[in-house]
Write a structure and sequence with these properties.
Strand 2, helix 3 and strand 3 form a beta-alpha-beta unit. This protein has a single domain, classed as Aldolase class I (TIM Barrel), CATH 3.20.20. By secondary structure, it is of the alpha/beta class. It contains 4 helices and 4 strands, in the order E-H-H-E-H-E-H-E.
Length: 122
């Protein structure tokens, strides 16, 4: 099986959020996530990874809709184990789902999911 490239585009959204968090509808809100997604695919990406965190620190609900509906390549949806995010995943039907821990103090996910201690909730 050939090696495939998945590109995580979360931190492009982080840049946008730093500059335009309160005015995402502005025509100046950049970088535009879909434009970057298209560039990643043109550069060889076989899939795109987005992580809609409960705190919405980078990817926003609108981004999930735009990226999933673009049908550029399969989407890998990183998510915490919450009812709200699960409902969003079910609604958008990404090709892949990756459950990750979400610790508010982390800038980005820094560790794996302890499945053994989280067996009940998972």
């Amino acid at each position: 099986m050939p090696l495939k490239l998945g590109v995580n585009i979360d931190h492009v959204a982080t840049l946008r959020q730093v500059r335009f968090a309160t005015m995402l509808e502005s025509p100046n809100a950049e970088p535009v996530l879909l434009d970057l997604a298209k560039e990643a695919v043109n550069g060889g990406a076989d899939s795109l990874t987005i992580h809609l965190r409960a705190d919405r620190r980078h990817i926003q609900d609108h981004d999930v809709t735009v990226i999933c509906e673009s049908n550029l390549v399969p989407v890998n949806f990183e998510m915490g184990n919450t009812e709200e995010i699960l409902e969003i995943a079910i609604a958008h039907k990404p090709a892949f789902v990756c459950l990750v821990p979400e610790i508010r103090e982390e800038i980005t996910t820094e560790g794996g999911l302890d499945v053994v201690s989280q067996r009940g909730p998972l």
